[in-house]
From TrEMBL:
Coiled coil: none annotated. SUPFAM superfamilies: NTF2-like. This is SEC-C motif-containing protein. Residues 31-123 form the YchJ-like middle NTF2-like domain.
Amino acid sequence: MATHKCFCDTGLLFDNCCGLYLEKRQKAPSALALMRSRYSAYATHNVDYLLETTYISERKYYSKAEILKWAAANKWQKLEILSFTENSVEFKAYFLDSNQKPQVHYEFSTFKFENNAWFYVDGKFE
């Protein structure tokens, strides 16, 4: 059992938050919960979860090796939710790059609910 705080900054323990979804004990109940769990998946290098939660028509644009390389090269610091609707989340993810330089990834993500599950469709970046 992981007794540390969740990576997604809810203040909850990992096991009671994103761990539920990453360990397939539950499906994320909302686009926001899925987005938070995907951030935690980057922090824990859970590439399978990232691909499984990407909308099926979009998966061909992603490489497992490239996702893992990017997830592992960075040290994930903090997630900041700026706004969200039922099917979109605007956020900033803070991380240290491979040179330990602070970086901010801004994204406006869209999600789709299909077959009783939420999926990441795409994101606009700045």
